[in-house]
Amino acid sequence: MPYKYVAYTQAGERVQGTLNVASEAAAEEALWRSDYVIISLRQARPGADLAELMPTFFGVKSRDLIVFSRQLATLIESGITILSGLQMLGEEASSKPLQKALQEVSEDVQEGETLSNALRKQSQTFPSIYGRMIEIGERMGNMESVLRQVATYMEKREALTRKLRGAMAYPAFIISLAFVVVFLMITFTLPGIMGLFGEFEMKLPLPTRILIAITNFATAYRTQMMAGAVLVVTVIALYLKTSTGQRHRDILLLKLPLIGTINIQSSVAQLCHTMSILLKAGLPMSEIMNLIVDTMGNIIIKEAFSRVRTEMLQGQGLSQPIRQEKVFPGLLAQMVRVGEETGTLDTNLETLAVFYEEEADRKINALTGMMEPALMLFVGGMVGFLAVAVIMPMYTLMGGMR
Question: Which domains does the chain possess?
Fold first, then answer.
């Protein structure tokens, strides 16, 4: 639990901060070990942490971790100690959650913890693979090189994720905007025009009659429709937070045309790149498999690779279990088999990672190119229907007046 303190150093400098320890006695002992004269020490009241409640919006972004990793590597190369580097970067961090995490990491390192153990305590900020790679750097004495490897890994992963989300966000935004505009028109703008047509005894065209029926229904049940839309969105959001909902979502993402292929190829690219980095770092294969399973996002692919891990640990190798899982492309099993036979598994995996990244990029560009004309037809069809439904009776009405 966190304890806030105010103290003086032996040089008479006033310092303050927060310690994350088990008890007040442990906090006092940690401050005494640092030769601090304690002025005040009290338990910090936990407040509403937006980073924990909504990590997607208020948590530490992967871009922040990438920049931090490269900056820390540069500082270590310049001869600055890890503790000093952490304190400097913590003070300059633009992200408040990262600033808080680095402050706690600095305090743990100052109390004698290794950097890898201190990072593991900040599991909400630093992924498990991050702390494990730092531990390798500590053991091998090449911390700056490992930090750059981690930054490169996270950069590639972020780039694929960003491209995939961008390809999905554009059509979702256009379709949502079109529905909102149409809803506002049929509930606020068109009722008056449709009422004007109803005052004249004339046979209205079919599109106009359809639009009048839609307008009347939307006007009569406007509140219920809005409440229903909010309810549906809420239910879907809550369902997607459950394990069953996440599983169904991931199954759908793999079965959708083109989108499923993109998801598989991007997941395989991340898998290959992660395994290649960890193999080059010298980790045992059993631990590499565990870390890869932890970093996978899609539940179906994660379950498939878990089965691969189980069979590999039973002595069946890596290529054969991969070949048995239909979700993985055949090329992956072939390249892994060649790598196992020639002792170049890490190099082959890195080659595969680059190949599947490029394939995913190409398919994302193709998906975006296909969606643009489809969206134009969809939005144009909606606008065209509204225009025909409004303009046709006007021409009929003008003809009757003549």
Answer: 2-47 (3.10.20), 59-126 (no CATH), 171-402 (1.20.81.30)
